[in-house]
Amino acid sequence: MWLIPNGLPDHGHxxxxxxxxxxxxxxWLKDLxxxxxxxxxxxxxxxxxxxxxxxxxxxxxxxxxxxxxxARMHWTLHQNYSAATHxxxxxxxxxxxxxxxxxxxxxxxxxxxxxxxxxDVDHPSDIxxxxxxxxxxxxxxxxxxxxxxxxxxxxxxxxxxxxTDGKLSLNAAGFEDVAFGPAVSVTNLVPNLPKLKxxxxxxxxxxxxxxxxxxxxxxxxxxxxxx
Length: 227
Hints:
CATH topology: Immunoglobulin-like
Structural class: mainly beta
Largest sheet: 6 strands, mixed
Shape: globular
C-alpha cells in the first residue's frame, strides 16, 4: 500500500501515515533503534464514537483504498478510456503531484491554500466533478497526543460548494471539523511551548472524483512549520 503514489505516504517519513498505516521508530530498546512500529490514531466514526488504536491508522482510509482497487478492476471492463474513472492530479499553490507541500506560517497568522488548479483527468478544465476536503491530522505531526482534540491549526473554507457553508463536522476518514471546497484559509494557533518547537503540523487535502460507482481519492499533505 505504501508503493501507491496517492499523495499520503512519504518514504522518508513513515510517521506521516498512509494507506499502509502510520509508523514511528521503536525507541525503548537500543538494538531496535532502526525498527518502526505501528502508531496510534484516533478516528471518529459516523456514530460519533472515538476509537484510538494502531489499527485506526489503516482503517481510517479503508473506504478510499477499497474504492480505488474496485475502480482499477473496472478499468479492465472498458476498452474506451473515457468510460472509466481516473485519479485526479492534485495541485496546491502550484505544487503538483504526490509530494508534500512545505509552508511556514508565523504564530497567529494565516495563509491561503488553493487547489483550484487541480486537474480532473476525466473532465479537463472543470473541477466541479471533484470533492475537496481539508483536515488537520494531529498525529502525523505530534504522535504523543493521540486521542486528544487539539485545535493547533484552524481551517476555514474560502470557496464552499454552492448551497453549503463548506464545513463538515466529520468525514469518512474519521477527521473532525473538516473544510470542503477548493480553497481554504489556514491559521497557525500552535501554542508557544518548548515541546512543540520545530514540529511539522499536517493538513491533509483529500480530492475525490464523483464519476462512476467507485470514486478515486488522491491526497496532498501540507506540512506547516511555525516560526
